[in-house]
Amino acid sequence: MSSHLRASVLSLALGLGFCLMGAVPAAEAETRGLTPALVEAMKVPPQNLASLSCRRLWYLEHKVLAAGRVCLSTDRARRAFGKALPCISDEERILPERVRDYLTGIRRAQRVKSCPVD
Question: pTM for the whole thing?
């Protein structure tokens, strides 16, 4: 067996072992329970939110809501994210707690910057 193939088999066996033991790699643990769209929408680390402009914070907030399939309430947001998947609820409580915490961070940054409410 070639060394490359042996390394691939070992990597696969280790990954399977982690799954069987219930251990999840750190990167996977951070995204567990989130759709790929939410993972993509939340790419800006929470500690970097304060450095964003009001315009970027607005966009990010609504991108997260749209990715979570929360119905957008303003015409501006619906125009910006009209190609998103259909919404399933007006309630943000359908979102995982981690996503709601992220939105709280965005809104906190908007308040500190005195961003216009839209």
Answer: 0.73
